[in-house]
Design a protein that fits this description.
The protein has helices at 20-32, 54-59, 70-77, 136-139, 146-164, 184-202, 228-240, 333-351, 391-428; strands spanning 10-14, 38-43, 47-48, 68-69, 80-83, 85-90, 95-99, 101-102, 108-110, 113-116, 119-122, 127-128, 141-142, 175-180, 211-217, 244-247, 251-254, 258-261, 266-268, 271-274, 278-279, 298-300, 311-313, 318-320, 365-370, 374-379, 387-390. The chain is α/β, with parallel strands linked by helices. The protein has three domains: 10-126 and 280-361, FAD/NAD(P)-binding domain; 136-278, FAD/NAD(P)-binding domain (3-Layer(bba) Sandwich), CATH 3.50.50.60; 362-430, no CATH class. It binds flavin-adenine dinucleotide. Flavin-adenine dinucleotide is lined by residues 14-20, 42-45, 48, 51-52, 54-55, 85-86, 123-125, 143, 184-185, 315-317, 331-334, 336. Residues 14-20, 42-45, 48, 51-52, 54-55, 85-86, 123-125, 143, 184-185, 315-317, 331-334, 336 line the site of flavin-adenine dinucleotide.
Amino acid sequence: MTNINNTKHQVVIVGGGAAGLELATRLGRKLGKNNLAEITLIDATTTHIWKPLLHEVAAGTLDESEQVEYLAQAHRSHFRFRLGKMEGLNRPSKEIYVSPTFNDKGEELIPGRTFAYDTLVMSVGSVSNTFNIKGVAEHCLFLDTTTQAFNFQKQLFESYLKKYIGKDSTTVKPLAIAIVGAGATGVELSAQLHEVTNVLAIYGLNEQSNVKLTIIEAATQLLPALPDRLALATQQQLVKLGVDLKLGRRVVEVTPEGIHTHDGEFIEADIKVWAAGIKAADWMKNLDGLETNHINQLLVDTTLKTNDDHIFAMGDCAACVWQGHKGNVPPRAQAAHQQAETLYKSICSRLQGGALQPFTYYDYGSLVSLGKYTTVGNLMGNLMGTVSIGGFIAKVVYLSLYKMHQVAIHGYFRTALLTLSNAFRRSAYIKIKMH
Ligand SMILES: Cc1cc2nc3c(=O)[nH]c(=O)nc-3n(C[C@H](O)[C@H](O)[C@H](O)COP(=O)(O)OP(=O)(O)OC[C@H]3O[C@@H](n4cnc5c(N)ncnc54)[C@H](O)[C@@H]3O)c2cc1C
C-alpha cells in the first residue's frame, strides 16, 4: 500500500458533499486510522450541509446543528481536510491545482496550492444550468451552494420587511416569488416558502401571509420523475395552497422586473429562483484530457473510473450509464450515497491488489416533501414494481434518506443523539430564522 517513493498511498477526494464526505469518512476510518493510506478531502467551503436540505436553508427553517464542520469531521474520522477550490489538473505529474482562498474583503488567506495524488476522486457536484437564457445568471437566485441558500433567505426576509413594514397591507401588492422548474427542488421550495411566509405572518410581521408564489415549467406536467398519479396529487396540493402553476411555458428572458415566457406572457416577480436542471461546472471541461459529456460531467465506466486509471468520479459530476435503462444514473442523493459505497470498496480492494467493484444503481424511488403539508412519492421503482406512498409513511421514508447520510458520517449512536436533540430544539425555539 505504498507508492514508488515508499510513502503512504495518497487518496485525494475533491468535493465533500453527499458523496465525497461519506467516502472520506469511511476511508479515513478504515485506511487513515490504520495508517494504510493518507486520505485528503478538499472542499471550497468549511462546512457541509446535505444538499437536499438547501431549500430549508433558503426558507430559513433549517436548524444550524445540521451543518458539519469539515475540520472536526476530519479530526474525528482520521482524514485531512484542506480548504480550497480546485481549478486544474496535471495528469502526467498526478497533481491538482487549488486556487487561492480570499476573505470577504478580498484579502488572500491561503495561497494557491498543489496537491499530489495516487488516487483522485472527483465529487464536486453540479450547478444550475441556465441554458444561456438571457438574464437568468444576472437576475435569478440559485440553490447550488449553502452561501446562495443563505443569501436567498436574507433576501426573502429583507424583501418581506421592505414590502410590508410601515405600509398599509390592504393596498400593498403581494410579494411575488417565481420559481422556474417544477422538479423536486422547485416544488419543495414552493411548499417551504408557503409555510415560512405564513409563519412570518403569525409572528406579527404582517396581518396575513401576502405572498404570490408561481412555478413556471416548460414541461406540461410537474415532477417528471414521479408517476402521473403522484404528480397530479402534488399539483392539486399546490393549487390548494394557492401556488400558481404555469406549465408548458418556456422561459425566454429574465429581467429585474420578472420573467418572459415563449408565448409572450410576462410574469412579474420580486424574487426569481432558477431550479431548471443541472450541469457540472464549466471548469470541468478540458480537464487535462478527461472525457466529458455536453453538460461537463466526467464520463465514467461501470467501475466509476474515468479515462484515466487513477481518477474516479461520482455523484452529480459523473456521467455513469444506468445499466438496463435509457440514459445515465440520475443526479440524486441516493445515487451519490451508493456510488460512495462502491468506491469505498473499490479503493480498499485496489490497495490490496484486488479488483474494482462494478457499480449498480438501485432506484429506491423518488420522494418529494411539501414541508408540513405532505410528502408524496413512489418506492422501489425498479425492484418490486412501483409502490406509491404518501402522507406520514412517505415523510418517514423521506427522512430516512437523510438519516442514512448522517449514519455514514456520524455513526448510529451520534445520529440518534443528534435526532433527539434536534427534536427538542425544534419544539423549544422559533420555527424560522429571521436574520
Ligand atoms: C435544493 C435541492 C434539493 C434536492 N433534493 C433532493 C432529494 O430530495 N433527493 C435526492 O435524491 N436528491 C436531491 N437533490 C440532489 C442532491 O442534493 C444531489 O444529487 C447530491 O447532493 C449530489 O451529491 P454530490 O456529492 O455529487 O454533490 P454535492 O452534494 O453538491 O457536493 C459537492 C461538493 O463539492 C464542493 N465543490 C464544488 N466545486 C468545488 C471545487 N472546485 N473545489 C472543491 N470543492 C468543490 C462543494 O462545496 C460541495 O461540498 C437536491 C438538490 C438540491 C439543490
